[in-house]
């Protein structure tokens, strides 16, 4: 039976939420008149179609095994996914998320907003009006970083002479991905329909990728020069808006407001070359395989990556993922700032609360003025007593998402990772 102490109406009156008594004004009002304690960033979830030979091989193994009486293992059932994702491991010397596996990406630069980009787009047949219509007229919610980019304020840029944020943040994701991995997503032809992204091969006859990566590391302004000289433009059409994550106030000394994009590649790049100063290794895998490795302490994942991988487990084919991302492109995104709380578990426990959870504060402190976020109940108590749950549960090396609320913007409800049992929909 549900304990009434933890219903949505009463929980806000308890001492637990009093400790989370944080303040938030309207984001645009709050952020327009102050220097924000975070930087804006873009990240790219790169999805590649699994090679046909690999898919056929797995299915043949399964058929042969069944014919001779060998049952399908949990691994063979749950890893039968028609696509793979690219994740990179951050350097141990990094001042933020050291040694963590993340999606490629990085900080947005002023040059990502320069009006010179209009020339690059025009050279491939994409007019300013076309780009704005295709990428900027989103019907769904728009987060503060899109409506009023802090990068413009931080560097004193005139918004009227800059690219719209919907285009600039895509350029930043493409540029950072190229710097970190050597995967360059550009096109010589403007696109009019939802499409997979265009990727330049490393043996390209018209682009010296090694040279341009070195040039970009010295100065990100050179990305627009790369495109103008090569008669290409960033393939902004191939990037689909996914979600916006703001670093919690209690995580380290650096915070980022990061727009996650997703792109689909028809073929996995075979010549990824890492920038060893930023990332030290890469890994292609399915959403479930990354979560398996994390649960076995083979890799480290931060809560946003755990959340997005759990969300992607809903889609097991490349075609379904591409269809979902492209059809959702007009529904917008919200910005989520997780709120971290410790629990009373004797061996340690923590929650990363998301909007919609009964424990998520109704008034949010974006600056972290109140650092007291301890709960006097255990994780098991919360599962039984809190009705609306939307959080990442962290205990030891295992992080799992629990979600039984409807999500905004037509997005997917994440699946709860269960090992060694198959992943199932949260039903708490």
**CA distance, first residue to last residue:** 13 Å
* Unreliable runs: 1-25, 62-66, 71-78, 421-428
Secondary structure: number of strands: 16
Query: How would you classify the helix and strand content by structural class?
Result: alpha+beta
Beta percentage is: 15-25%
What's the gyration radius in Å? 22 Å
Mean of residue pLDDT values: 84
* Gross morphology: globular
Report helical residue fraction. 25-40%
Largest sheet at a glance? 8 strands, mixed
Q: How many helices does DSSP assign?
A: 16
Could you walk me through the main structural features you see in this protein, from its secondary elements to its overall organization?
This protein is an alpha+beta fold. The chain is 31% helix and 18% strand. The protein has 16 helices and 16 strands. The radius of gyration is 22 Å and the shape is globular.
Topology:
Elements: H1 8-11, H2 15-18, H3 27-32, E1 39-49, H4 52-67, H5 74-78, E2 83-90, E3 101-102, E4 105-107, H6 117-123, H7 128-136, H8 144-147, H9 150-154, H10 165-181, E5 186-187, H11 209-218, H12 222-230, E6 233-234, E7 239-246, E8 256-265, E9 279-285, H13 287-295, H14 303-312, H15 318-327, E10 335-336, E11 339-342, E12 350-353, H16 379-385, E13 390-395, E14 398-403, E15 415-416, E16 424-425
Parallel strand pairs: 1-8, 7-10
Antiparallel strand pairs: 1-2, 1-4, 2-3, 2-9, 5-6, 7-8, 11-12, 12-13, 13-14, 15-16
């Amino acid at each position: 039976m549900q304990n009434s102490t933890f219903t949505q109406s009463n929980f806000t009156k308890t001492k637990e939420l009093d400790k989370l008594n944080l303040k938030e004004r309207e984001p645009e009002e709050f952020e327009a008149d102050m220097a924000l304690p975070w930087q804006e960033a873009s990240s790219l979830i790169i999805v590649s179609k699994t090679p046909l030979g690999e898919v056929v091989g797995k299915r043949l193994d399964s058929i042969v095994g069944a014919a001779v009486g060998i049952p399908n293992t949990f691994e063979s059932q749950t890893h039968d996914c028609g696509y793979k994702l690219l994740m990179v491991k951050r350097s141990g010397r990094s001042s933020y998320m050291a040694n963590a596996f993340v999606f490629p990406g990085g900080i947005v630069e002023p040059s990502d907003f320069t009006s010179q980009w209009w020339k690059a787009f025009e050279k491939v047949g994409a007019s300013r009006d076309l780009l704005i219509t295709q990428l900027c007229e989103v019907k769904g919610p728009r987060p503060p970083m899109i409506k009023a980019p802090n990068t413009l304020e931080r560097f004193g840029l005139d918004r009227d002479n800059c690219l719209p944020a919907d285009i600039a943040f895509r350029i930043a994701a493409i540029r950072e991905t190229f710097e970190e991995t050597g995967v360059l997503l550009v096109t010589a032809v403007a696109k009019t329909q939802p499409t997979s992204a265009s990727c330049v091969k490393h043996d390209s006859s018209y682009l010296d990728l090694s040279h341009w990566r070195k040039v970009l590391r010295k100065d990100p302004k050179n990305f627009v020069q790369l495109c103008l000289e090569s008669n290409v433009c960033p393939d902004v059409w191939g990037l689909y808006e996914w979600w916006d994550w703001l670093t919690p106030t209690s995580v380290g000394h650096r915070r980022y407001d990061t727009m996650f994009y997703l792109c689909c590649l028809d073929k996995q790049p075979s010549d990824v070359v890492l920038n060893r100063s930023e990332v030290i290794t890469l890994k292609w895998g399915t959403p479930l395989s990354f979560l398996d490795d994390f649960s076995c302490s083979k890799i480290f994942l931060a809560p946003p990556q755990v959340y997005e991988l759990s969300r992607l487990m809903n889609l097991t084919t490349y075609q379904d993922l591409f269809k979902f991302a492209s059809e959702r492109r007009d529904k917008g995104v919200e910005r989520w700032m997780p709120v971290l709380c410790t629990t009373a578990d004797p061996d340690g426990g923590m929650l990363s609360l998301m909007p919609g959870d009964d424990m998520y504060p109704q008034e949010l402190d974006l600056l972290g003025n109140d650092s007291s976020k301890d709960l006097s109940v255990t994780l098991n108590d919360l599962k039984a007593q809190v009705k609306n749950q939307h959080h990442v549960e962290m205990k030891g090396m295992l992080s799992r998402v629990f979600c039984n609320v409807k999500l905004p913007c037509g997005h997917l409800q994440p699946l709860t990772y269960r090992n060694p049992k198959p992943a199932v929909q949260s039903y708490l």
